[in-house]
């Protein structure tokens, strides 16, 4: 059944906006009318503030971009709608890896559709800079510092970092994982083992 759909999201930069346009076109091909509610800034922080205000005042948008871990909070508050019917029709349990499918569910029911998947251990690299510096893509934290030194000596900035809190946390997580290794990382941040945390 076609209808008007207000979509709150924070895909506002060049490539992100183009991705949102693709989703909009897909919805409009099905006869829906997409009302674009794009909120720039903060990796979604501003959008989440607006969403919370709208939701608690009884005027939520039809759909909103959420990060996977936020789904559980919104589910507990009763703001999510079951997507089980379409998930069954499109066989999401068969086409989605379990790690993705489980994040899209609340209380065993699909409540979200994945439109992108992020990992926090990405490193964006400029091939021209690496070539000019005679550097190679690092494969470890120690190697990162070796390659960063070459890049700096060639007159380039070896690491660009926005300094926003979510970026600081992401960088910290990656450095901690590289230094501790996966076993001690889990002991430190999952089981909160004082021996690792104080070591």
TrEMBL record:
GO annotations of cellular component type: cell envelope
SUPFAM superfamilies: Periplasmic binding protein-like II
Transmembrane segments: none
Subcellular location: Cell envelope
Protein keywords: Signal, Transport
Domain of life of the organism encoding this protein: Bacteria
Family: Belongs to the bacterial solute-binding protein 1 family.
Matches recorded under PANTHER family: ARABINOSE-BINDING PROTEIN-RELATED, BINDING PROTEIN COMPONENT OF ABC SUGAR TRANSPORTER-RELATED
Record protein name field: Carbohydrate ABC transporter substrate-binding protein
Organism: Photobacterium damselae subsp. damselae (Listonella damsela)
């Amino acid at each position: 059944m076609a209808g008007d759909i207000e979509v709150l999201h924070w895909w506002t930069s060049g490539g992100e906006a183009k991705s949102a346009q693709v989703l909009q076109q897909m919805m409009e091909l099905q006869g829906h009318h997409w009302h674009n509610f794009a909120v720039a800034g903060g990796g979604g922080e501003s959008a989440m503030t607006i969403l919370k205000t709208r939701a608690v005042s009884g005027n939520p948008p039809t759909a909103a971009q959420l990060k996977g871990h936020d789904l559980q909070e919104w589910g507990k508050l009763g703001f999510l709608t079951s997507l089980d019917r379409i998930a069954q029709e499109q066989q999401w349990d068969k086409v989605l890896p379990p790690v993705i499918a489980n994040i899209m569910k609340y209380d065993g029911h699909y409540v979200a559709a994945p439109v992108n998947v992020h990992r926090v251990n990405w490193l964006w690299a400029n091939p021209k800079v690496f070539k000019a510096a005679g550097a190679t893509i690092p494969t470890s934290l120690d190697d990162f510092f070796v390659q960063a030194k070459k890049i700096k000596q060639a007159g380039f900035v070896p690491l660009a970092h926005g300094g926003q809190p979510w970026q600081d946390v992401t960088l910290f997580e990656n450095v901690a994982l590289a230094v501790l290794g996966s076993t001690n990382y889990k002991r430190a941040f999952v089981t909160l083992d004082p021996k690792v945390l104080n070591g």
